[in-house]
Design a protein that fits this description.
single chain, alpha/beta, TIM Barrel, eight-stranded parallel beta barrel, three-stranded antiparallel β-sheet, 47% helix
């Protein structure tokens, strides 16, 4: 199925596996790429040296195009961009809008720039700055998310920009792909659906929590870092929502110290990143610290399997996913169902009166 997305990035199918921290590592990304979709490596939880190693590991596992996801507000974003360029990565995606300068640097090196956005005005801004495509996530999506449903936000963005738009938030099958194409999108991006594959390195016990969840078990909370964050409801989420400010601050400092040791970041650097997050938002300092070390909360679940100590970012689709296919099986299934759905649509010419 050829679309503006497949032509732009050189993949066979208009499907994107999103860059989920601690989840989208070399194994999942290469399995996605070998299945003909666009795998995106999550770099926010990696040091620059580990990012370079991970990129080279993906390249050793596949000769297909793949991408790297960056945090545009990270202090070392420029260093990571240079790694992407040096290593010949095909696509750079961003969790926040990158600067005009970063976009220009990447495009000059021939890298396709695909920021993720959650509002029409953000899509218009990055398109004006030269982005090649955008991923637009509606409120159904996992992790940090907005309030506008994909079915409302997607057509707004499609109408506003003249670059390929990839739809995210609420997608898990071929019917969703056809629906997104009907809205004018060039493909769909899926996070939770790729997390719940046998190629994902997330511990089996954590996957079982996702598979057991209903749509009512997926909630949006501000208790983690002050921003709307969609995740599975858990003991920790309940505890954070009940905790007072002083207790939350103590927990935040403790986890921030752990993230500092793991990431190699200095306290001053973490404070600068925290200030960047606080800018323009009404966040307490405990929320700023939690935002700076949210990766540790994700790592506890996604790497260590400690669902009692970590958070589990999740799209609402977790409530309707029931199995763990390989990436190859998933991509084949989605594309087959999309073709079947297209074939079952009524012929508009046949319904016209003579």
């Amino acid at each position: 199925m050829e679309t503006a997305l497949t032509r732009l990035v050189g993949v066979r199918h208009p499907l994107v596996q999103t860059g989920m921290g601690w989840v989208a590592g070399p194994r999942l990304v290469s399995a996605t790429a070998n299945a003909g979709a666009l795998g995106v490596l999550a770099s926010a939880t990696m040091t620059p040296d580990r990012l370079r190693e991970a990129v080279r590991e993906v390249k050793s596992r596949t000769d297909q195009p793949f991408g790297v996801n960056l945090r545009a507000d990270a202090g070392d974003a420029g260093d990571r961009v240079r790694i992407i360029i040096d290593e010949g990565v095909r696509v750079a995606s961003f969790a926040l809008a990158p600067s005009r300068e970063l976009i220009a640097e990447l495009k000059e090196a021939g890298v396709v720039v695909v920021p993720s956005v959650g509002a029409r005005r953000h899509a218009e801004k990055v398109a004006a700055w030269g982005a090649d495509a955008v991923i637009v996530q509606g409120g159904e999506g996992g992790g940090h998310t907005g309030e506008v449903a994909t079915t409302v936000l997607l057509p707004q963005v499609v109408d506003a920009v003249r670059i390929p738009v990839v739809a995210a938030g609420g997608f898990h099958d071929g019917r969703g792909l056809v629906a997104a194409l009907a809205y004018g999108a060039a493909g769909i991006a899926m996070g939770t659906r790729f997390l719940l594959t046998s190629d994902s390195t997330v511990p089996d016990a954590v996957k079982a929590r996702y598979l057991a969840a209903t749509v009512k078990d997926v909630t949006v909370t501000r208790a983690v870092d002050g921003l709307p964050h969609r995740m599975l409801r858990s003991e920790l989420v309940d505890s954070l929502e009940r905790s007072g400010r002083a207790r939350t601050l103590v927990r935040a400092v403790h986890r921030a110290a752990g993230f500092r040791r793991l990431s190699g970041l200095s306290w001053s650097r973490m404070v600068r990143d925290g200030l960047a997050m606080k800018h323009g938002r009404d966040l307490t300092w405990s929320q700023v610290l939690l935002a700076a070390n949210t990766p540790m909360l994700l790592r506890a679940s996604m790497v260590e399997g400690r669902t009692d100590l970590g958070v589990m970012a999740s799209g609402q689709v977790a409530g309707v996913i029931e199995d763990l296919p390989t990436c190859a099986e998933l991509v084949t299934r989605v594309m087959a169902q999309a073709q079947e759905t297209l074939g079952a649509l009524p012929d508009p010419d046949a319904s016209m009166p003579a």
